[in-house]
Amino acid sequence: MMELKSGHRVVEIEEEKNEEQKRLFKAYTKGVVKLQPGNWFYTRPFLDFADKIYDFKFRPTDIVIMTFPKAGTTWMQEIVWSLKHPFESDNQLDGFPCVALSSKYNLLEGDFVKSTGSGLSAIQADDGYQLLQKHCPGKDPKNGVFLQIAEKISDPRIIKTHLPFSLLAPSLLNTCKVVFVARNPKDVCVSFYHHSNIVKTHGYTGDFNKFFELFLNGEVMYGPFWKYLEEAWERREHPNLHCVHFEDLKSNPMKEISKLNDFLDTGLNADQIERISDETSFEAMKKKEPKKCNTGTCPLMDRSKGSFFRSGTVDSWKKNFTKEQNDKMNEWIQKHSSNGNNFRLRFSN
């Protein structure tokens, strides 16, 4: 049985479930695995990069944005970038989301995400491959496009990840600051469903009912949801960890951005924070979405199925859930959030 440097064991998934994943997610042609302990759910290409990610050297000046997928990652990375570069806001969303790496921010595990089904072809098809040649001439993309560019980015690096603490370097929190964003799993589930339809590195072909069941069972990429939050909850008192609720950020962005300003020691005044609040609103960010993502030319998005910036609201789940699904998820939330070992999230019934 294969064991990773993180101490996790690779567990093969029964053939029937593996084949189901391949049918439902067009990009998962290499299959899926689970990692124990934790029951973490990943596509097989993660194994090619897991140890390299675990060995990644963080710097004291780094800021790591950690979220479960679709919990406010893009929003938070733009806020953090703007706090660190308050006079460069006109350059926001430079190439994002078509190029999800630059001097602005980097998806730490992006190499395995883009290799889910087609190896390096997905990386070579977009600007990320060209960026590697520009910033790291002569480097072999098989060793990681995202990882090697991240190593070259100048300080302060803003790095995002959907990986849990247990799959990252144990020294992470003692080395740099981490901003963790939690969101109502009902909205996460709906947003992740739409995201998996649009983004070609998932290529989801099933309906929402099936995705809902997979989400609750922890059988979507990066699952299980509650275990992911639990690892952050265990570390909530660490001075280098700042936890944000998506719903709080939505209801009072000035207050939450001010807290981030204090946490990151960026020293901005109220007027600057208000400007950042305005410029990182959903409406403002949607307007800046690169044109090629809206014309069908983006190699990583099926634009015919929708926009990367879809809703950005609280309680959008109400348009998707049946009463039975809502009752089932309420029971699931109660089970995992009322035992004192996890976040009590802000959500409506």
From TrEMBL:
Keyword Transferase (UniProt) = yes
Superkingdom of the source species: Eukaryota
> What protein name applies here?
Sulfotransferase 1C4
Sulfotransferase domain ranges (all copies): 60-336
Query: Which keywords has UniProt assigned to this entry?
Result: Transferase
Give the family per the record.
Belongs to the sulfotransferase 1 family.
Q: Do you know which Gene3D superfamilies this protein is assigned to?
A: P-loop containing nucleotide triphosphate hydrolases (3.40.50.300)
Q: Recorded GO terms, molecular function?
A: sulfotransferase activity
The cross-references to Pfam families, in alphabetical order and at most eight, read: Sulfotransfer_1 (PF00685)
- Nucleus recorded as keyword: no
InterPro entries assigned to the protein according to its UniProt record, in alphabetical order:
P-loop_NTPase, Sulfotransferase_dom
